[in-house]
């Protein structure tokens, strides 16, 4: 029997770069993970229904890239090698094949009903990006951001907070001199971002880096017709805490980015 969707107050995405050292294979950032756990506990103590989705970070990306898992074994002449890479990626991700299946990269079967059931029972579901079976390519990489978009599409979600290793979205890569934090990213009803933004993805990130994060935020805002705000904050920051436990907007003294829908008059 299908479970009835339960309202979700908050979806927290723990970015792979925030909780792992992406330049070092299978290396945690313990301090960031402890801060994340503290934040989730605060939310639960406030009586909020929370879903946590975390990126794989330095777990799985190297194996997925080396064996071209994203493309699947049906489109690669070295299918057995992709199959082997699929297994290695799964093993690596499981150190931190659910019910998710894709068709040429698009989700056709999700585990959302199970998430809903666990929420109703008082649990905090924890999901992550992973390699999954694909009916067209054999297998592919399902990003945590795609999981979040599916949750927002199938459940009533109050807000989404992406926790990253930097304060938010910048007008160019934050390590570039002169980079400025963008506090508000406005998106028109066609999905076009008003501001000019230059993104920079790490070469080992097979799920799209910051470009996918931003496009996911835009899609969430669009598919909800602007009713689901998306915030990007630094893990462990006061901004992240205030937004997660009930804040509706960033205070003037808090660093972060909110993605909103800009309707034409």
Structural write-up:
The protein is an alpha/beta fold and 265 residues long. The chain has one domain (8-261): Acetylglutamate kinase-like (Carbamate kinase, 3-Layer(aba) Sandwich), CATH 3.40.1160.10. It is built from 8 helices and 11 strands. It has a 7-stranded mixed β-sheet, with helices on both faces. Strands 4-3-6-7 form a 4-stranded mixed β-sheet. Helix 6 (144-154) packs parallel to helix 7. The longest helix is centred in the N-terminal third of the chain and has 16 residues, at 30-45. It is globular. Residues 10-233 form the Aspartate/glutamate/uridylate kinase domain. One of its GO terms (molecular function) is isopentenyl phosphate kinase activity.
Task: Write out key terms for the chains shown.
265 residues; alpha/beta; Carbamate kinase; seven-stranded mixed beta sheet; four-stranded mixed beta sheet; 8 helices; 20% strand; globular; transferase; Asp/Glu/Uridylate_kinase; AceGlu_kinase-like_sf
Q: Span between N and C termini?
A: 45 Å
Percentage of residues in helical conformation? 25-40%
Judged by helices, strands and strand pairing, the structural class is: alpha/beta
From the spread of the alpha carbons, the general shape counts as globular
Question: How many domains make up the coordinates?
Answer: 1
For CATH, the homologous superfamily is named as: Acetylglutamate kinase-like
Largest sheet: 7 strands, mixed
Report the β-strand fraction as a percent range.
15-25%
The overall average pLDDT, rounded, is 80
Sequence of strands across the biggest β-sheet: 5-2-1-8-10-11-9
Using only C-alpha atoms, the radius of gyration works out to 18 Å
- The CATH topology corresponds to Carbamate kinase
Q: What is the name of the CATH architecture?
A: 3-Layer(aba) Sandwich
Separate helix tally: 8
Order of helices and strands: EHHEHHEEHEEEHEEHEHE
CATH level 1 class label: Alpha Beta
According to DSSP, the number of beta strands is 11
Low-confidence stretches: 201-208
């Amino acid at each position: 029997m299908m479970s009835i969707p339960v309202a979700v107050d908050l979806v927290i995405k723990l970015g792979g770069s925030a909780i792992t050292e992406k330049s070092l294979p299978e290396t945690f950032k313990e301090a960031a993970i402890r801060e994340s756990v503290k934040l989730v506990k605060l939310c639960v103590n406030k009586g909020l229904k929370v879903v946590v989705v975390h990126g794989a970070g330095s777990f799985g990306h190297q194996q997925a890239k080396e064996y071209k898992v994203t493309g699947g074994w049906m489109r690669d002449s070295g299918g057995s090698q992709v199959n082997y890479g699929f297994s290695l990626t799964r093993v690596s991700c499981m150190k931190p094949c659910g019910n998710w299946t894709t068709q040429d990269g698009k989700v056709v079967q999700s585990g959302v009903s199970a998430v809903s059931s666990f929420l109703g029972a008082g649990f905090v579901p924890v999901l992550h990006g992973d390699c999954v079976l694909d009916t067209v390519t054999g297998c592919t990489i399902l990003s945590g951001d795609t999981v979040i978009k599916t949750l927002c599409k199938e459940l009533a979600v109050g807000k989404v907070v992406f926790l990253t290793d930097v304060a938010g979205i910048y007008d160019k890569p934050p390590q570039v001199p002169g980079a400025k934090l963008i506090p508000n990213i406005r998106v028109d009803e066609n999905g076009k971002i008003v501001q000019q933004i230059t993104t920079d993805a790490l070469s080992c990130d097979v799920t799209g880096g910051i470009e996918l994060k931003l496009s996911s935020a835009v899609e969430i805002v669009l598919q909800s017709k602007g009713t689901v705000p998306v915030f990007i904050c630094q893990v462990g920051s006061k901004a992240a805490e205030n937004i997660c436990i009930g804040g509706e907007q960033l205070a003037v003294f808090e660093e972060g980015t909110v993605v909103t829908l800009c309707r034409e008059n």
